[in-house]
Amino acid sequence: MSPEETKAPYAVLWSDLDSETVTEGLERQVVHGDRQTMVRYVYQPGSVFPDHRHVEEQITVVLSGRIRFTVGKERFECGPGSCAVIPGGMPHSAEVIGDQVVETLNAYSPRRDSQPTLSANSGSLQPAAGSGP
């Protein structure tokens, strides 16, 4: 049997997971698999995710609210039901548009085992070990 076949599957409820503050107005919860990481972010109106980068590819699904991404030199807005695909290593940031709470699910591959690298003048970001944005 391969190592993947010997691991037991499991299920979790987001409501059972601890939440941590990433920056003011931004909370996250993290689930790790063997080869990928899933992060649920909840952004309060007016909150901003500072410019940063990480080696993992990121796919973000917007569940509620509207959010503006800046990825490299590109800017685009996403709302409920839309996805943003962010290549690994590319600088990016996000900001809430409007006065609604934004909820996203973010898949990272490969598994998130390192911290993001903040771009110059992006502010302070203090993610927990192994679960950065």
Comma- or semicolon-separated keywords:
Jelly Rolls, 133 residues, 47% strand, mainly beta, single chain, disordered C terminus, globular, 5-stranded antiparallel sheet, 6-stranded antiparallel sheet
Concise overview:
The chain has 133 residues and is mostly beta strands.
Annotate the secondary structure layout.
Layout lengths: L19 E4 L2 E7 L4 E7 L4 E6 L3 E8 L1 E6 L2 E5 L4 E4 L5 E6 L4 E8 L7 E2 L15
Antiparallel strand pairs: 1-2, 2-3, 3-10, 4-9, 4-11, 5-8, 5-10, 6-7, 6-9
Description:
The chain has 133 residues and is an all-beta fold. The chain has a domain of 80 residues: Jelly Rolls. It contains no helices and eleven strands. A six-stranded antiparallel sheet has the order 1-2-3-10-5-8, with no helix packed on it. A five-stranded antiparallel sheet has the order 7-6-9-4-11, with no helix packed on it. The protein is globular. The protein starts with 19 loop residues before the first strand and ends in a 15-residue tail after the last strand. The C terminus is likely disordered.
